[in-house]
UniProtKB/TrEMBL annotation:
SUPFAM superfamilies: Phase 1 flagellin
Annotated Pfam families: Flagellin_C (PF00700), Flagellin_N (PF00669)
A molecular-function term among this protein's GO annotations: structural molecule activity
GO CC aspect terms: bacterial-type flagellum; extracellular region
Protein name: Flagellin
Function: Flagellin is the subunit protein which polymerizes to form the filaments of bacterial flagella.
Family: Belongs to the bacterial flagellin family.
Subcellular localization: Secreted; Bacterial flagellum
Predominant localisation class: secreted
Flagellin N-terminal domain span: 6-137
Length: 258
């Protein structure tokens, strides 16, 4: 039945074209953003997970920055202490030579005093952005090493200070005791550096792993979307033609009255 008021073919063609345009807009948005899930309306569950993991990674990045700073502070302190141990060994050697025939003790003492002053200078110079683990005024270093989601607490690593500035080389026995303490402190700093660097490496890998996981949930497959875009553009063109044909069918009714 030909109807002037109701064009079923045009209605069907319009519905098909509307759906095609909607699908085309979705595909174009995915290509533009690179994400299959960019809003909660796309997939509420995946969007919620991705948003939460991005927030977690933001915290992980802050932890990584803290570990990087801590690693630098420990590295500076270890370098200073390592050099000071070499100087301390020279001091012990010179103190051991005092009292021997032909040795000018006063001259040796001047050398010891100069080396001791150099160690104190290293202690005060081993500073990284105001953090010094070797000076008398320095304090222990607390490094944020991790964060457990929803726990509200931070995992930390504490690196103890060593007062190198007050190192005592007044006599041979004292110097040997001081040198041993310096070596022990260097060993502790080395162990702390290994721990901080290991945690820094893990945190970097964790950030990358979370990014990959989020990508697997929300990233668009650009190859598939490109193919879908071409198909939808073709469907759109055919839909426009079908709608045009359906609308022109009502014009044929006029021929019945000629």
């Amino acid at each position: 039945m030909a109807s002037l008021l109701t064009n079923a073919s045009a209605m069907t063609a319009l519905q098909t074209l509307t759906q095609t345009n909607k699908n085309l807009a979705t595909t174009q948005n995915r290509i533009a953003t690179g994400q299959a899930v960019s809003t909660a309306s796309d997939n509420a569950a995946y969007w919620s997970i991705a948003t939460g993991m991005r927030a977690q990674n933001s915290i992980n990045q802050s932890v990584k920055d803290s570990l990087g700073f801590g690693s630098a502070v420990v590295d500076v302190a270890y370098t200073g202490l390592e050099e000071s141990i070499k100087l301390g060994e020279k001091i012990v050697s010179k103190l051991a030579s005092m009292g021997q025939d032909g040795i000018d003790d006063a001259t040796v003492q001047k050398e010891v005093d100069a080396l001791t002053a150099q160690i104190a200078q290293i202690a005060t110079s081993a500073d990284f952005e105001g953090q010094n683990l070797l000076s008398t005024a320095g304090t222990a270093l607390t490094v944020v090493a991790g964060y457990v989601k929803d726990s509200g607490t931070l995992d930390t690593i504490t690196v103890a200070k060593y007062d190198l500035e007050a190192a005592d080389f007044s006599d041979l026995a004292t110097a040997e005791t001081t040198l041993k303490a310096m070596r022990d402190a260097a060993a502790d700093l080395g162990a702390s550096k290994i721990r901080v660097d290991s945690q820094l490496s893990f945190t970097s890998k964790l950030i990358d792993a979370v990014d990959r996981g989020v990508g697997a949930l929300v990233d668009a497959d650009m190859n598939a979307e490109s193919a879908r875009l071409s198909a939808l553009q073709t469907q759109q063109q055919l839909g426009i033609q079908a709608l045009s044909i359906a609308n022109s069918s009502s014009q044929s009714i006029l021929t019945l009255f000629r």
